[in-house]
């Protein structure tokens, strides 16, 4: 299996366009994936309303370059997304379109930008028997291209081409699945099921700047990686990208499960990496929960969630926007004496609140076991 990875150091549009073209050329060119007249649905990662410079959302320069490439091949392009988070009567998707710069790109290039929260859906049944509503416009596209951002993720440890597809599920339904699948490994299984229902033909990843530490939102740390990756095997592309951040092949549950289900390969020995990119000689910070990978499965089984990091609101940073309160699937964020508090007894530690907070006001508190593992690791290193 081939994964293309070309070095790209910044978001200067001329450079991004050239590098995207080079990356796809290594896979045989865009014509390998798009025929003239095809409807092509692009799915960027627009997690929530953030400016491109924060490294949280797929950069508009990358989206623009891919739109132009697909148009040149004769494809009819549409861009679609359902961002995370809810307010009282509406989602944050429209706001995300604007703040991430994607609305402007689509307007300039005359491309339809689709809010997946407002379109007709079709219920698809996943391998686990879960009924997942998906936008008809996505299911009817001739070609789907996932355009993720390279990032660490507190719950799933890594988010790339496959996890990006979670934003195809409209609105509040996304939060409901967190409630139904509170165990991170079960949740990863659901994401893989979703992937098997959509099966994009191609992914082109914005790996120029991403997040390390406790991503995928504002509490992650912006980091430069310096590459654009692409491939038709999304499991392979995610595995290579995750390895750049420091993960071993089986350390990311989503790619590990997808590999077990023959949806792609996470075997780095069987992945041919094409292109000139050299991984920076540095260590990236992984999320606190990644340390739980060091423990044997039998120890984690049914008590896994109790070891996960917990969210905590930093009152001095909180601007009372209430995104967290309206988005929490468990409704355990409550207002008391003009302050927001998390009732941890019923918190499932999905960290959606942390992911969506615009002000880095929700931090994670590591479980004592994780703190102990850290100390032991430090002692032995
Ligand atoms: S903690 Fe963050 S998301 Fe919640 S109200 Fe405060 S600023 Fe908004
Ligand atoms: S408080 Fe945060 S981590 Fe806990 S259930 Fe709600 S959104 Fe998830």
TrEMBL record:
Sequence ranges assigned to domain 4Fe-4S ferredoxin-type in this UniProt record: 309-338, 339-367
The keyword Lipid biosynthesis is assigned to this record: no
GO molecular function: 4 iron, 4 sulfur cluster binding; metal ion binding
Superkingdom of origin organism: Bacteria
Gene3D superfamilies to which the protein is assigned, alphabetical: 3.30.70.20
Keywords, comma-separated and alphabetical: 4Fe-4S, Iron, Iron-sulfur, Metal-binding
Pfam families per UniProt: DUF362, Fer4_10
Function: Ferredoxins are iron-sulfur proteins that transfer electrons in a wide variety of metabolic reactions.
The name this protein goes by in its record: Ferredoxin
Lineage of source species: Bacteria, Bacillati, Bacillota, Clostridia, Halanaerobiales
